[in-house]
Fold this protein.
Amino acid sequence: MSRNLIIGAGLTAFFTGLAALSFLWTPYDIEVLDIPNRLLTPGGAHLLGTDHFGRDILSMVMMGARTSIAVALVAVGIGMGLGVPLGLWAAARRGSLLDDVIMRGNDLVFAFPSLVIAILITAVFGPSAVNAIIAIGIFNIPVFARLTRGAALPLWERDFILAARVSGKGAARISAEHILPNIANLMIVQGTIQFSLGILAEAALSYIGLGAQPPTASWGRMLADAQTLVSIAPHVALIPGFAILLTVLGLNLLGDGLRDWLDPRIRVVRT
Amino acid sequence: MIRFALGRLVSLTASLIVASIVIFAVVEVIPGDPAAFMLGVNARPDTIAALRAEMGLDEPLIARYAAWVSGMVQGDFGMSWTYKTPVATLIADRIWVSLPLAIYALALSTLVAFPAGIYAASRRGGAGDTAIMGATQLGVAIPNFWFAMILVLVFAINLRWFSAGGFPGWADPWAAIKALTLPAIALALPQAAILARVMRSSLLDMLGEDFMRTARAKGLTCRQALWRHALRNALIPVLTIIGLQFSFLLAGAIIIEQVFFLPGLGRLIFQAISARDLIVVESVVMLLVFTVIMVNFIVDLTYAAVDPRLRARA
Amino acid sequence: MSLLSLKNLSVQIGGTPVLQGINLDMAQGQITAITGESGSGKSMTALAIMGLLPQGAKQQGQILLDGTDIVQTPEPALCRMRGNAMGMVFQEPMTALNPVQTIGAQVAETIRVHENVTKAEAHARAAAMLDRVGLKVAPTRYPHELSGGQRQRVVIAMAIAMRPKLLIADEPTTALDVTTQARILDLLQGLVDEFGMGLLLITHDLAVVADVADRIAVMQHGRIVEHGPTSDLLRTMRHPYTRALFAASTHAVDLPAVQNDAPLLAVRHVMRDYPTKRLSLFGSRPTFRALDDVSLTINRGERVGLVGESGCGKSTLTRAILGLEPVQGGQITLDGAPVSQGDHALRRKMQVVFQDPYGSFNPRHHVDRLITEPFHLLDNPPKGAARDQAIAKALADVGLPSDAADKYIHEFSGGQRQRLAIARALIVEPDLIIFDEAVSALDVSVRAQVLDLIADICRKRPLAYLFISHDLSVVRSITDRVLVMQGGKIVESGLTESVFADPQHPYTKSLIAAAPQLPELAHAADAL
């Protein structure tokens, strides 16, 4: 097991743990404003200080972890849940009109960065965390569909797939029994990477006001609030940023570590 | 080569048509009555009727779509409801901030990433490689708007080398470039980190290829083989990433504009969203999508220039 | 003085010895062959001579090329020697060339690296060299526009552009068809005569060695076990490994007589067209005819061979017979019924064994699941104890222990995997098996064992098969009847012995003439 994997898994477990703990307990209630104690520096009763409304930053970070992780996780779920079957289907019908339609559809979605999708949705439905999930999720679909198809295509030419076809198995059954297990590692690694990108995207959308809305705490929202205070109370802007940085870093290291661990061929290349 | 370009052009046109239909459907069909939506619940019926007439909402959908598209082709993006000016004018004013910013960032990112990636690959496993790879891990994980805030804190507020935001216009090009420098750095950092990683791994993939062994057998040194044979082949996946990144840079520019109070497309679109000015939203989104599709078209052509195998394929 | 002299050369990689005490001398103008099975250290010897051993390799001893010890030479000086004093040709011509550079530029590069000449002059000399190696296409073409044989000529031109004293060719014809192989070997021999260089030819194919080499070194487990002038070595064969290798290469299989002549498989006037790339943007797609009016019959218990070079339509025919791809004309019937994807009862009568022992099995399943996959074709597949029994029997039939069932495929060698592939085919007791290049990827000794196994199975139960191979000697020993295929057509068919002894079609004649032959040696047969 590599150092990447241990550090990555540790960081990921830490922030997931914070998010889980926030359901049971936070040091302070973040919906209670405490203006006299605003902009306290870290230490003392408030471990990470307070923001401009006197809210406890540690509690906000914990609640924000919950939002970020939930949004990114559901978005990865949407991307995998729709993208992987689409990719498998396109690969099974490679060269057909259906394959063409799926792949052209993917190209088209790639022309809409998730921010643009979020802008469109927000313009019509108003901003919300759900919109952020949909926008990031839609963008994840072609990522997984392309990757799945790309990995499945060479497998379809392999002799063991031909042998399964000679044994009378149909495309759906072969995809489930033979293709999917052979691309699972790739999907796990890519899923980790998309998860980290989802955290970044959620933060960006919340920051510009297209994601989670108050009173829901979110790291991007905290940064937006802190922007004008950056010269007076830098910690208010630094702490949520470090939370994002460390979570994303943890997930990326976890992804790299998993790749090295799951697929020995790649480990050889990276030595 | 010409056949290849024509083929790409056909699929580009198809993408544009489908994209425009999607955007039109989301903005003008899903809300039901866009005029009532734009004016909100308290609007007087005659104001709504006036807007309906102006937007041509009494026409059938197909006719409205056709009018929108044919208008755009001629450079007419409609009239903004809130600004009471042609959308084309609004965009024209702001694109001169957003587009240069994205290009500036792309140039920075490429200039940093190429040497870093090549250096890391040629010193694989060494201290330089480890340092560069560690730095890119951080670069990939930093949210660019937060990095922008830190840049402001350090270089604008503490060191006072740059202004913390705003844009003086292109009358003084030097001042304009200076105003765009911190935003461009903030935008470029994560992209440069990704690009450097791709460049490195793509090069390392090439080092294992048979033709690299052939090159060594000819008497080329490791470095000569890397520069003359691996690099051009490694560029193919790198180009894909650059193409994809341009859309992120353009979208990212919209966010970074918020940090630096730049009067670009981002500001325009957020004001339009809060004012429910659907006409502006629709046109700016179409423009963004158009740019992304065009950039991918250019990347495809560059591909063909790099790789003779693609030229043969139509 | 000898041109190249290896003195007690040993190489370790990561502590594992790959070469042990190699001693070898070769003279200018001579062809020295190194032969042996995979893993014997042949290629590592070549890389050591080029100074291109993988990173982390440790070497002792001397490699003297014209008096210069390559082991002691620093890297910059080695770079000046590679391509200049010594050149190398590799096995895989499809990947040995840079895909984004013209072939002329790649040959010219060898010249420009070593000599201070103008670009124009280097290109002119490159063009002349390409002409000398018999390449008939312009130097401005890219590698992907060339066939495998043409690309190998480019690689040769690159290696000899500076007229090196030593040319190393590592399996230069293994990836090529037999007629192309003959032409490339001719070319290499001609170049040795003309330039007076030494050629170190590395090949697993004893027949190639016997045909062209002046001297032979036989390698096994990183050592040279026997070494001497070709005719002496083949006559005496002192070392038992040399004798075993030779016997395996000329191995004749003892096939039982055919018992039945009722027709089993009938292919009638089958056409298969593939769409190819569009010539104009809006026109209809042109097609390539991969099978052109192919007809053949296989009777019950009959063993039929199919030979032909790559691209002749062999694989397409396999897929068509198995019903994996639609045909555009004609009919394929098995036991009188047309073959179709859905008819499980019919498909049970027909199974297949593929070429690649590494790609034929899902790496994520256990062997029991792998070899029982054809049970999907049965209405009532055996379960529980009956299934275990069937697995044990199938494994026993191919000479593998029953505990193999719980292992993953990566725990088996190439030869064992082909046995498992045969077990998988046999488990539903088919009437017909298609062997698609089933022994082509195996070393000669393993190949001989698998061929014996096939004959053994025929002795135990009536089995018809279609044995597809590019290797004429294998087909000759394992079939009753043979079909010769060229350009999607069957150009000749008949009893195996009569076709080989007296070929009628010019293509069959050229194939047989091009195949390198081992000399008949009296005591070779009793070696095993």
About this structure: Residues 222-260 of chain B form the longest helix (39 residues). Chain B touches chain C at residues 3, 6-7, 10, 209-211, 213-221, 224, 228-229, 232-233, 306-309, 312-314 (CB under 8 Å).
